[in-house]
Amino acid sequence: MLMSFLRDRRGNFAMMTGLLMAPMLGAVALAVDYTQMSRQKQQTQNALDAAGLATARFLSSGATDSDTLQYAESFFRTNLKSVKPENAILHVVLPNNNSSGGGTLLLTADLTYQPIFFPAFKALMRDGPAEDINIDFRAQSEIRMQNTLEVALVLDNSGSMDYVGTGSTEKRLSILKKAAKELVKTIAAEGAQMKQVSKPVQFGVVPFAGAVNVGTQNATASWMDTDGRSPIHHENFDWSSMGSTDSNKRVEQSGGVYYKRGSGWGSEENQKVTRFTLYAGLQRKECTKRDWYGNCKSWSYTKMPDWAGCVEMRPYPYNLNNEAPSSAKPETYFVPMFAPDETDRTDSSGRPANNNWWADLTSSTSSATRQAFMPKYFTPSETSATGNLEGPNAGCTTKAITTLKDVGTTTGLNSVYDAIDAMEASGATNVTEGIAWGWRVVSGSAPFTEARADTEKGNDKVVIVLTDGANTYYTPTSVVAQDYSGSNYRYGGNDLAGAKSIYSNYGYAKNRSGDSRIFDGTSSINKTDFSNDNFSTAMTQHMSAICENAKAKNIIVMTVALDLKSSDQTEKKQIDALKECASDSRSRRDGDGKPVKLFWNATGGDLDQKFKEIGDELSNLRIVG
């Protein structure tokens, strides 16, 4: 009987279960408490991060220190979820008091977690009363407030900006001016709170149309082609024509520069010849007295207007990058626009050339020869092209660039406001050139010097681009020609010189050597198709390329399409290109968790709201590190 009892193992399982019950319950208790503690810790961190971002924005708006502290406390506690407010203590160190961060908002939370099951388990194991057991940990969130901004407003000033905006009673340019100034005002006010930082927010303005105006004050700048060394500087000139008419008044090249040679130049002999000197020497003559037969008896001479400030695009690939001008690479210099005088001749339909502004002074029947004939510029002529945007300055329709200004100062802010107010709608559309100069304005290298170094940390460089149309470049017959012999021709000018386009900052679509700069650097383009549509396709490829190049150099690109319709095939292509051009947002995600493109499709009726959204994005750049 006794031996049978000892051999009976049927009660072992219950005994073993009893012995293991305490450790098993302890493991479950620890797992539950650990899960709950981790959840509360994460909720505290989430509430802290949310409070940090919200408080940074609140502080940036100009709030006082005391109001900021109260705001942070309230926001933090509202977002604690299942964490008991009394178990979390918030500490806030404002930027001015944060010696370790130097321009950061530091939020720290001390959380006390009270385990649910672990105290009972511990008491069971010790066979005594349960003790109060707390677990303390700390969470931290630091928001960078010292982020500085350099922004270039690249704004379309083409002729279509004079149209009334969709959903509005005002013209597009008027709407744009108001929205742009409000944006500058908002971001300037935020920057004013950063007392410890020099020039926290700077804005520049780049009005663009068919070309960009860099300002006449830069005519002698080191980055301008003042010696005429760039390969595009003389592409429309035939300097050999000087010697053909007078062997003592020649122009010859030496060391990459053209010089006046021969005794016929008098005191000007051996002086260099450039587009700038052509502007300086142009003399307009006007008859002040005539005889009975209409012959002029007396002339007055007046200097023609100087260079208006516009430049041609650099040859590829420098038109699509930000390489600083260098004497080692003359092609990196910027060449002043000079629209050649075109032929005096009319075609078989009686159409004049688009830009005939000077007497040809040659009997040649070749319009290409007449266009490139250089002695005419050194002989005074009667002309009606007396305005600043006519004659050699044709195509230069925009106001000059306003380089970066510290909008935290009244002077800087007013300078940017004045630049926006001064904009006028006229001309074609070359978004690529606008972006290129926007990039140059915020760049830390030449041509401008107002920006911080490109390598400086804590500084964001932003180019905001707005356009209301596709890129445009025109054949001579597709645009209205100027007045000619008192008649207004409504249906375009002639192309007797074979240039394939009107003059623009690409030069001509086909220059004297037969090259077409507008097609350089493009792919899948028919380079013998000289049509407006094909020009636009090539220009849009250039625009896409420069966007990618700028983004690769950490430029933040924001794009706005104004009154462009996706139902129009041409405008749809521009919408898609502008969206692709834009950078990804650092702070916003779509429904799939992907960064949102910094692109806005706006109408005249909601442009002000879109610019407010842009302002929010710029604010995020300043506070999200």
From TrEMBL:
Residues 11-57 form the Putative Flp pilus-assembly TadG-like N-terminal domain. Gene3D superfamilies: von Willebrand factor, type A domain. It holds the Pfam family Tad. InterPro entries: Tad_N (IPR028087), vWFA_dom_sf (IPR036465). It comes from the Bacteria. This is Putative Flp pilus-assembly TadG-like N-terminal domain-containing protein. It comes from Nitratireductor indicus C115. The lineage of its organism: Bacteria, Pseudomonadati, Pseudomonadota, Alphaproteobacteria, Hyphomicrobiales.
